[in-house]
Amino acid sequence: MDPLGATTVFLVICVSCLLFFSAWRKMSGSGKLPPGPVAFPIIGNMLQLNVRNLPQSIHELSAKYGPVFTIYLGSLRVVVLYGQEAVKEALIDQGDEFSGRGKLALADKLIKGAGIIFSNGERWKQLRRFALTTLRNFGMGKKSIEERIQEEARFLVERLRNTHGRPFDPTLFLTHAVSNVICSIVFGDRFDYEDKKFVTLINILEENGKLQRSPWTALYNFFPTLMDYLPGPHHRLFKNALEFRRFVLERVNMHKESLDPNCPRDFIDAFLIKMEEERKNGQSDFTVGSLVRSTVELFVAGTGTTSITMKFGLLILLKYPEIEEKVHKEIDRVIGRSRSPCMADRSQMPYTDAVIHEIQRYINLVPLNLPHAVTRDVHLKQYLIPKGTTIFPALKSVLYDSREFPNPEQFNPGHFLDKNDAFKKSDYFMPFSAGKRICVGEGLARMELFLVLTMILQNFTLKPVVDPKDIDITPESSFVSNAPKSYQFCVLPR
């Protein structure tokens, strides 16, 4: 071998050794990091993880490594929390220490840490506090929002009635209705279902949902630098994000022209007023960029998760007509047919309440939760987790705990009913996460799920287009979330 070739081989061996030594140091953490499968340089644990169904891989690894273990997504170290005890100890008992937002390459690229959900530190605290206060001021959990949801539900019922018993896919119907509720809060008004810009936004949202459930998203989170240069459908996500921002910025400029500081109409108005109050604060987190990204987050999160939950819920009720019939009877007894359901009815409808809770538990919409991060070096169990480490609190492991929910793989409203058929709360019910990072829109989502689903069932009987036994309610799993398979059904007026 010539000297140049020998030198090249020597350098390759040295670099490889350094990479393996670096990976070994990360994994060992001087014996303090949680255990986990051997990770390889650059690719991490990609060979041991199912990119199409990461939650299933996490479940299998937990059986070997216990309730707290370490994996590597490419070069990113992630500590997984599995089971109610570990999740509670972290998110609730040590809430401040686990309140950071962990890294997710795709989210970092799309949001750039400027919004409510994916920001950190003082910026996150300021924006989250402002969002919660503003949403409450505009009626989240108050009667005004309840009336808006009831109004939108009536529009939805009318659209369903116009199907005249023919089969249809409920996706757009539900998405339009749910989206208009959040639109009335952030933009100040609902959209006509045929409005071209509204239709475009919803189409983008639907496309993004499909892209985020594809393997391309998982690969991007493993290898972001490489994927930035490779062609593929994942680039549509970035183009779509730009379209969202353009739309919101256009609405912001419209609001600026008609803003009355003494009479804010919606979230955008309230944010603009806050920006003016902090104009002289050079370090303020209330900027146009934060406003645009926060509004996009509220719109996307407020539309997607709730509409998918409703769509999944209707599919489950199609499979179990006996459960639907029991809900019908409770609706007839408590509400009747002559008035709209209201939130005051829920306390008198334990079975319907249990069904809705069971829908959320069963579909476990975000199995691994959004990633958290530790804000300082922290002890958990016998391990030391270094500051900045990304955390996956596996919500499915809590929602499917067989000690709390016997036969968790089966859909059973009885999971939320006591021996007297009264509604039974559970500390294991955390579809909205828990602790400091619990979903900002939890109250709004709970209202929508109860009012919209109850109004649909008050007015219609659901009719499947296939035998209920043949209906598949197994979710389509992805790196981040679950979704129901596409389906059609009919609604028959009651």
UniProtKB/TrEMBL annotation:
<dbReference type="GO" id="GO:0016712">
    <property type="term" value="F:oxidoreductase activity, acting on paired donors, with incorporation or reduction of molecular oxygen, reduced flavin or flavoprotein as one donor, and incorporation of one atom of oxygen"/>
</dbReference>
<dbReference type="GO" id="GO:0020037">
    <property type="term" value="F:heme binding"/>
</dbReference>
<dbReference type="Pfam" id="PF00067">
    <property type="entry name" value="p450"/>
</dbReference>
<dbReference type="InterPro" id="IPR017972">
    <property type="entry name" value="Cyt_P450_CS"/>
</dbReference>
<keyword id="KW-0503">Monooxygenase</keyword>
<dbReference type="GO" id="GO:0008392">
    <property type="term" value="F:arachidonate epoxygenase activity"/>
</dbReference>
<keyword id="KW-0472">Membrane</keyword>
<keyword id="KW-0479">Metal-binding</keyword>
<dbReference type="GO" id="GO:0019373">
    <property type="term" value="P:epoxygenase P450 pathway"/>
</dbReference>
<dbReference type="InterPro" id="IPR002401">
    <property type="entry name" value="Cyt_P450_E_grp-I"/>
</dbReference>
<dbReference type="GO" id="GO:0005506">
    <property type="term" value="F:iron ion binding"/>
</dbReference>
<keyword id="KW-0408">Iron</keyword>
<protein>
    <recommendedName>
        <fullName>unspecific monooxygenase</fullName>
        <ecNumber>1.14.14.1</ecNumber>
    </recommendedName>
</protein>
<dbReference type="InterPro" id="IPR036396">
    <property type="entry name" value="Cyt_P450_sf"/>
</dbReference>
<dbReference type="GO" id="GO:0006805">
    <property type="term" value="P:xenobiotic metabolic process"/>
</dbReference>
<dbReference type="InterPro" id="IPR050182">
    <property type="entry name" value="Cytochrome_P450_fam2"/>
</dbReference>
<feature type="transmembrane region" description="Helical">
    <location>
        <begin position="6"/>
        <end position="24"/>
    </location>
</feature>
<comment type="function">
    <text>Cytochromes P450 are a group of heme-thiolate monooxygenases. In liver microsomes, this enzyme is involved in an NADPH-dependent electron transport pathway. It oxidizes a variety of structurally unrelated compounds, including steroids, fatty acids, and xenobiotics.</text>
</comment>
<keyword id="KW-0349">Heme</keyword>
<keyword id="KW-1133">Transmembrane helix</keyword>
<keyword id="KW-0256">Endoplasmic reticulum</keyword>
<dbReference type="InterPro" id="IPR001128">
    <property type="entry name" value="Cyt_P450"/>
</dbReference>
<keyword id="KW-0492">Microsome</keyword>
<keyword id="KW-0812">Transmembrane</keyword>
<comment type="similarity">
    <text>Belongs to the cytochrome P450 family.</text>
</comment>
<keyword id="KW-0560">Oxidoreductase</keyword>
<feature type="binding site" description="axial binding residue">
    <location>
        <position position="439"/>
    </location>
    <ligand>
        <name>heme</name>
    </ligand>
</feature>
<dbReference type="GO" id="GO:0005789">
    <property type="term" value="C:endoplasmic reticulum membrane"/>
</dbReference>
